[in-house]
Design goal:
By secondary structure, the protein is α/β, with parallel strands linked by helices. The chain has ten helices and eleven strands. About 40% of the residues lie in helices and about 25% in strands. The two termini are about 35 Å apart. Keywords: ATP-binding, Cell membrane, Membrane, Nucleotide-binding, Transport.
Amino acid sequence: MNFELERASYGVDGTPILTDISLAVGAGEVVTVIGPSGAGKSTLLRLAALFERPTDGAVRCDGTEPWSLPRGDRLALRRRIGVVFQQASLFETSVARNVDAGRRIRRPWSSRLRGFAERLTARWIHGSPTVDDRTLEALELVGLRDEWDRDAASLSGGEAQRVSFARALAPRPELLVLDEPTSDLDPRNTAILERAIGRARDRDHGVLLATHDMHQAERISDRVAFLLDGELVEIGPPERVFEEPRDERTARFVRGDLLYDENELLV
């Protein structure tokens, strides 16, 4: 999927949150959004995930404006997008059932009922639950293939986030939208998820990721976008944005040299 925001703006009750954002994510590309808290990063991701409609401008997926489509067609388009939030939200069931949840809700009810009957039959014949190959493949990408039958309640925070990532990957989405997925993780779990992001890119998934970790943005990005006060200040390859930024506001941010006066950011 080729995703694009074209001069998109978003506001609530007359208060602007994003203004005139133009941003594209191509297949097999990782675009990372950086910026201070309150800059509008999460709102931008919600537009990309088709959770919110821009108040002005356009969103396009493969050239199609999803908000001009009938609800059913827009839902089908949204199901081509995988989303991972900052906090893992797992169901009280096994790891495999959590990972398969995203695929189940994308199926028609007839297919869901057939799958339920097949699982019951397999359990009756074999005496143990079975797991789908695509679920195992997604768990393999996050290093948890052998943990498929664990109770999700027994997982550490880092393992739970890896399961959330596998759940987003299992339906094989064309665009991944990731809202600070490694912000609370230790270095090992962070490295595992960064490797999984790289492998998703290798499979031609587009990735749009928000992060506060500048080193992460340098490591995994094809392009980095700097967002400040709802404005896209600049976007480019990480080596340019971090080493030779074109805007002084970007330079201040990446240096950690932002100035404050009476709790207001001076730019």
